[in-house]
């Protein structure tokens, strides 16, 4: 069975973010926090995938994605800044994500701390990927 365009978009994003200098771990949909030894780390998660327009034979979709950066540092904001810039640059370098998307747009960025450890910082970077599929086949 062929992978959906949505799945191929996730694979392309993972490939784009692979190899960022200083990132120890890159995963998709990790259910638990990263350990100290695994940080700095990136987790790629789907948020929603909403059909925007169905014009037979095509459907336009808005795929919301959360890229979560987890790091451990006393200087959280300044330590996170180069990673945030690199993630953004890599994702926005090719708005078509290798020909799979119509566009990608940056969304909100949220900063939070992990309860119980003041050195843990979580940065959630949201992106919306616009893409199209056949109205009756999510793989094309």
Could you give a short description of this structure?
By secondary structure, the protein is α+β, with helices and mostly antiparallel strands.
Structural overview:
The longest helix is centred in the middle third of the chain and has 17 residues, at 76-92. The chain has helices at residues 5-17, 76-92; strands at residues 25-28, 41-55, 58-72, 103-114, 117-134. With 140 residues, the protein is α+β, with helices and mostly antiparallel strands. It contains two helices and five strands, in the order αβββαββ. β4 (103-114) and β5 (117-134) form a beta hairpin. The model has no long low-confidence stretch (mean pLDDT 93). The protein has a five-stranded mixed β-sheet.
Number of strands: 5
Write the element-wise H/E pattern from the N-terminal end onward: HEEEHEE
Q: Largest sheet at a glance?
A: 5 strands, mixed
What structural category characterises the helix and strand content? alpha+beta
Mean pLDDT: 93
Strands in their spatial order, largest beta sheet: 1-2-3-5-4
* Residue fraction in strands: over 45%
Which blocks of ≥5 consecutive residues have pLDDT under 50?
A: none
Distance between the termini: 12 Å
Helicity, as a percent range? 10-25%
Silhouette: elongated
Radius of gyration: 16 Å
């Amino acid at each position: 069975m062929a992978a959906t365009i949505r799945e191929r978009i996730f694979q392309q994003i993972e490939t784009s973010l692979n190899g960022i200098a200083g990132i120890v771990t890159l995963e998709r949909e990790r259910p638990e926090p990263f350990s100290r030894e695994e940080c700095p780390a990136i987790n790629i998660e789907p948020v929603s995938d909403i059909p925007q327009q169905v014009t037979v034979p095509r459907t336009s979709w808005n795929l919301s994605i959360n890229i979560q950066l987890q790091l451990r540092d006393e200087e959280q904001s300044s330590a996170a800044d180069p990673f945030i810039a690199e993630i953004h640059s890599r994702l926005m370098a090719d708005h078509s994500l290798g020909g799979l998307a119509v566009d990608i747009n940056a969304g909100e960025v949220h900063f939070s701390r992990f309860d119980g450890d003041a050195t843990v910082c979580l940065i959630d970077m949201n992106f919306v990927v616009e893409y199209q599929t056949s109205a009756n086949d999510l793989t094309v």
